[in-house]
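Saturday, quiet lab. Running sequence design on the structure tokens for the scaffold JK sent over.
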């Protein structure tokens, strides 16, 4: 009789345990995605500083989530800076490091470098 009670309790608790494990997995995935975004932004800042001698970074911004182009999680890093280099020269020196990026020129002469990559846990709840 004790074995039947234990098996019955296990059957009842199994869905609760599985749901808790899924929630923990999603939370760990979110943390890893956010840490990865911070590292991406730090690396981007380091590479921009190495490639552009007269860079003056005025703003760094990063976020993790859905960019609206699908059902997945992206890492977005944006760095606004000023430099005397031309936009074409900046594009040429950064294509060695990144295949896809956006470089926008603002009215005040600043540049915004935007990098969007897929997160390590791309199918996380943040992307839905």
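Result came back. Writing it out in full:
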């Amino acid at each position: 009789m004790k074995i039947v009670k234990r098996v019955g309790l296990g059957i009842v608790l199994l869905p609760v345990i599985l749901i808790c494990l899924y929630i923990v997995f999603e939370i760990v995935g979110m943390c890893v995605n956010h840490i990865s975004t911070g590292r991406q932004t730090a690396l981007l800042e380091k590479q921009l500083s190495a490639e552009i001698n007269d860079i003056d970074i005025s703003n760094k911004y990063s976020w993790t989530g859905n960019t609206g182009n699908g059902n997945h999680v992206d890492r977005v890093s944006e760095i606004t800076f000023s430099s005397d280099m031309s936009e074409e020269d900046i594009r040429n020196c950064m294509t060695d490091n990144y295949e896809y990026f956006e470089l926008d020129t603002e009215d005040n002469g600043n540049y915004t470098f935007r990098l969007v990559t897929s997160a390590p846990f791309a199918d996380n709840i943040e992307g839905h």
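Notes for JK: The chain has two helices and four strands. The chain has a mean pLDDT of 91. Ask whether to fix the surface positions before the next round.
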